[in-house]
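for the recovery benchmark. tokens below, seq after
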């Protein structure tokens, strides 16, 4: 089975989290935390900053590691490393996604998520509760 390693940004701002909707492929229309593949020799944090810059034209500060999710999709095994981030420059500008939303805790469960991203929801809710204090 093919192995894919990715990073995901949990970007929190003003008690909301940034989520993006896939524009193509078999998971088109599903929601995810933005990010992408780690290139050979690249650190996880560097990969995350690069992917967010490429996909959303924003610069983020990678605050802290949240969790790693392992998930078997039909075509590949995914290892996804999620990090809590905050924007340091720019605003979301969609380069590869259909839509982006800023969501509060109570709205997270209403979206059709990519299967692996579902495993991040409780951690994201905890981060949003922390930011509300």
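predicted aa per position
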């Amino acid at each position: 089975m093919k192995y894919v390693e990715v990073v995901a940004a949990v970007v929190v701002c003003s008690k909301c989290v940034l989520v993006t909707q896939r524009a193509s492929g078999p998971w088109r229309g599903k929601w995810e935390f933005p990010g992408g593949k780690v290139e050979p020799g690249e650190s996880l944090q560097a990969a995350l900053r690069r992917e967010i810059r490429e996909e959303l034209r924003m610069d983020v500060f990678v605050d802290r590691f949240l969790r790693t999710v392992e998930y078997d999709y039909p075509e590949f095994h995914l290892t996804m490393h999620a990090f809590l981030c905050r924007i340091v420059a720019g605003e979301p500008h969609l380069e590869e996604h259909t839509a982006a939303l800023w969501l509060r805790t109570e709205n997270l469960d209403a979206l059709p998520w990519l299967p692996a991203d579902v495993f991040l929801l409780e951690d994201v809710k905890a981060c949003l509760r922390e930011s509300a204090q």
